[in-house]
Amino acid sequence: MLSNLLNLIFSLFIFSSFNLNANETKHVIAIGAPTIDFLLDVDESFLDSIKGEKGGCEVVDWPTFKSIVHENRSFLRRYATGGSSANTIKGLASLGLEASFFGRIGNDDLGEFFFNRLLEIGVTPELIRTEKPTQQVACLITPDCQRTMRCFLGATLEFSDHDIIPEIFEGKHLVHIEGYALRHEGLVKKAFSLAKEKGLKTSFDLGAHELAREYKDSLMKEILPSVDVLFANQDEAFALTGLDPKEACEELQKMVDTVVILIGKDGCFVGSKGTTSHFGTTPAEMVDSTGAGDLFASGFIYGYLKGLSHQESAQIGNLLGGAVVEEVGAEISDERWERLLHKIRSLESLPALAGK
């Protein structure tokens, strides 16, 4: 009888230890450019008056940025914290994961605003201060709700591979890097290399079709083989592969374990180990597409780290992406977050979320 009791106690201990590990809160670090987004309502003729393609993101100098934003204040809806990786990590923090953000930020009022907003949401800022101004982006929103971005880099110009040290990956489970970091190509390569040495999972968001086109060779030969989860929209996937979304998803699986290709209101393709599936999206009343892909990535990464299926992960991603397009800017309101977390909890196969 004593033997049976000891066996029962031992079994309960093992079961308890297993569950503790299974429910361990995952810690994600995002690397990218701390950014302040200036959200402006413009018409098509305004886009025709400035250089660059509609729907993309191009770098401009300070005089050009000033002429777009500061001389058109009547178009300005609001300003808010932004940046692709920052948007994604804020979403993960709101889902209840431990979250950190690493990048270079200006020692200015906009930098302080960004820093404090991360703290409010529950993200640990791991930021390097510099005397250059904080990066700023003009998000130009046309009547079709599409956003076109023009970016003044500022402090991000000083971000380099020398900033990437092994210590920033200690205690983390996954590192997420934005495609805009490709402007510092050595930084991306070093970050993924060190992360792999530390046993982290890696995710990468291509971010803009211009970047996919410009850095195609490096991406295909050196960067993507170090990526566990790749996010791209159909334009970025085409720029990289020349293929339609499904075929691009199949092709990129030759280098990346899990590939997610977003196709707007038609949902996404998710592929892994030679199997590609299509998942529909959540109906939404779009007012601004800023942050849609970033918040989708938050939801998918959450599911990925929890060991959920591709369908469940995409479902969470679509919930978040569908929610953020119904608001102006790349943040979901606290009230909407409450409703989202309730929906996610209602999915029977999902564990309870900490959340907001």
Q: Helices and strands in order, then pairings?
A:
Blueprint: H1 2-22, E1 27-31, E2 35-41, H2 44-48, E3 57-59, H3 62-69, E4 76-82, H4 84-94, E5 98-106, H5 109-121, E6 124-130, E7 135-141, E8 147-152, E9 174-178, H6 185-197, E10 201-205, H7 209-214, H8 216-223, E11 229-233, H9 234-241, H10 245-252, E12 258-262, E13 268-272, E14 275-279, H11 292-305, H12 310-324, H13 334-346
Parallel strand pairs: 1-5, 1-9, 2-7, 3-8, 5-6, 9-10, 10-11, 11-12
Antiparallel strand pairs: 2-4, 7-8, 12-13, 13-14
Helix pairs in contact: 4-11, 9-10, 11-12
Question: Can you describe this structure?
Answer:
This is Carbohydrate kinase. It comes from Candidatus Criblamydia sequanensis CRIB-18. Keywords: Kinase, Signal, Transferase. With about 350 residues, the protein is an alpha/beta fold. The protein has a single domain (about 30-35, about 80-135, about 155-345), classed as 3-Layer(aba) Sandwich (UDP-N-acetylmuramoyl-L-alanine:D-glutamate ligase). It has helices at about 1-20, 45-50, 60-70, 85-95, 110-120, 185-195, 210-215, 215-225, 235-240, 245-250, 290-305, 310-325, 335-345, and strands spanning about 25-30, 35-40, 55-60, 75-80, 100-105, 125-130, 135-140, 145-150, 175-180, 200-205, 230-235, 260, 270, 275-280. A nine-stranded mixed beta sheet has the order 6-5-1-9-10-11-12-13-14, with helices on both faces. β7 (about 135-140) and β8 form a beta hairpin. α4 (about 85-95) packs across α11 and α9 packs across α10. The chain is globular. The model is unreliable at about 1-20 (pLDDT under 50).
